[in-house]
Design goal:
5-stranded mixed beta sheet; 419 residues; 15 strands
Amino acid sequence: MSKMKSDFLAVLHERGFVHQCSDTEGLDALAAGGKVVAYVGYDCTAPSLHVGHLLSIMMLAWLHRTGAGKPIALMGGGTTRVGDPSGKDETRVLRTVEEIDANKEALKGVFARFLRFGEGAGDAVMLDNAEWLAPLNYIAFLRDVGRHFSVNRMLTMDSAKLRLEREQELSFIEFNYMLLQSYDFVELARRYGCNLQMGGSDQWGNIVMGLDLGRRMGVKHPLHALTCPLLTTASGAKMGKTAAGAVWLNEAQLSAYDYWQFWRNTEDADVGRFLKLFTMLPLAEVARLAALRGAEINEAKKVLATEATALVHGRDKAEAAAETARKTFVEGTLAEDLPTIEIPRSDVANELGVLAAVVTAGLVRSNSEARRLVAGGGLRVNDHAVTDEKAKLRLADISADGVIKLSLGKKKHILLRPV
């Protein structure tokens, strides 16, 4: 790779963000002149984004931080009504407009941690593609946009091909998704001078089709595509997936402490790579931390956890999570900042089953999973191992602090507060 003229592409390459780029030299020249207007689209399928979205969010953040141009966070208020088939084995559940709007509002908060929004030329903007997609006349859209798409080519895209090869249903409404995503790029190019779409590597086909559509529909300036890799951990697991489900970015779905713990539990082989991707630490410091071995690698994991959590939840909550972990694991005390849920006191008075309690607390998904933990000695109440799957919680288990501590292994804890 030749030396980049722009800090933006230099940073992305050095830190491992770049998977594919349609025209590296042309994009580098735009970035060096601060003339990139880049967008990433986020569908509103849930009230929170998850760790899987972080790579593209970080790409927008580095665009901003290096002064390469203007970031656009595009909310998919329109495309979510259709559903992106990429990477899915079955048709997405269609959500109501009210659900989509509520999810959209919930998603907005995380971007303010990474981007500076405002009216200035280089300030970030947040848009909603429902603005131009919702009013579309379907017949006019087919004539103006649909005629530029080859069904033969669309069937070669992974989002369609993989579904068909497995003989899994691909609905007609999902088949339209790539048309709408391509049209987003055209509208953003016309309205805001957008010249770059970024996303995960699974979106490459859709993004490139947007470049082609822009050319066919008369967009005058060059359009560019840039994708980041879809990450897996060193052991091959999908990044951001845990036994308890997705690692959400909003605190309403996952506490800052649990988010910190997710990063603290990073596999040794992933520490250096994740420090590059998910923190903004200088690369020299990343190299120093990544070089640690043996027990010292745990210090690097704590730095990763605190820096990654600070980006999403703020420095105060990140440091509070680190301190909670220190008190819990090093001092062995009951840290008041552990995740806490309230349960009816009457449930405990009526001797709530421990299996039901850990499911209610979200430590496991099912009673059968809880039974396996009991059999393996991995479940504790107030730091005492549970050996009987029929064990009950009683009022006597409530500590002087008014809580009952449930633990899954050595690292995952939650407090029940009977009220």
